[in-house]
């Protein structure tokens, strides 16, 4: 009888431990810290040679556009669906940007953006970021 109780208890404990592995929501809000520390309303700059804008926050999403190094963006949302890409964990953000005279929107992974932008005494801009 003790063996039956012990077996039942073991099965119950193992089932509750695995019950915590639920799939995330489609737009899981990211509230963690990251190196970029970008918030809704902040200006950001593309650091990658080419950064893809997507229709929802995931690498499987459709490509809407591509932006080149130095393009200015406005962070238009809180972070969503954090992903580890190139060894960095960062969220996706809804962004706004101008291209060919039109205001466009889409999602970008924060790891493609510069950590900061500085201007020297002569007005030359410098952006800093992480490659790998």
Task: Count up the helices.
Answer: 1
What is the structural class? mainly beta
| Average of pLDDT | 80
Range of strand content: 35-45%
The main β sheet shows up as: 5 strands, antiparallel
Helix-strand string = HEEEEEEEEE
What is the overall silhouette?
Answer: globular
Amino-to-carboxy terminus distance: 58 Å
Per DSSP E runs of 2 or more residues, the count of β-strands stands at 9
| Cα radius of gyration in angstroms | 21 Å
Characterise this structure.
- The structure is a single chain.
- This protein is mostly beta strands.
- It is 13% helix and 39% strand.
- The strands form 3 sheets. Strands 1, 4, 5, 6 and 7 form a 5-stranded antiparallel beta sheet that branches. Strands 2-3 form a two-stranded antiparallel ribbon. Strands 8-9 form a two-stranded antiparallel ribbon.
- The longest helix is centred in the first third of the chain and has 17 residues.
- It is globular, with a radius of gyration of 21 Å.
- About 8% of the residues have low confidence.
Please give the structural blueprint.
Elements: H1 2-18, E1 43-45, E2 50-54, E3 63-68, E4 72-75, E5 80-85, E6 88-99, E7 102-109, E8 116-119, E9 125-128
Brief account:
By secondary structure, the protein is mostly beta strands.
Keywords:
132 residues; two-stranded antiparallel sheet; 39% strand; globular; mainly beta; 5-stranded antiparallel β-sheet; 1 helix
């Amino acid at each position: 009888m003790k063996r039956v109780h012990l077996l039942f208890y073991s099965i119950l404990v193992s089932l509750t431990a695995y019950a915590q592995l639920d799939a995330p929501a489609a737009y899981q809000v990211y509230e963690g810290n990251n190196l970029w520390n970008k918030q809704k309303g902040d200006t950001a700059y593309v650091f990658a040679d080419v950064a893809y804008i997507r229709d929802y926050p995931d690498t499987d999403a459709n490509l809407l556009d591509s932006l080149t190094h130095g393009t200015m963006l406005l962070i238009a949302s809180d972070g969503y669906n954090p992903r580890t890409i190139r060894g960095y964990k960062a969220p996706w953000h809804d962004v706004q940007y101008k291209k060919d005279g039109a205001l466009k929107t889409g999602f970008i992974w924060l790891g493609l953006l510069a950590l900061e932008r500085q201007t020297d005494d002569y007005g030359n801009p410098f952006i800093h970021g992480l490659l790998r």
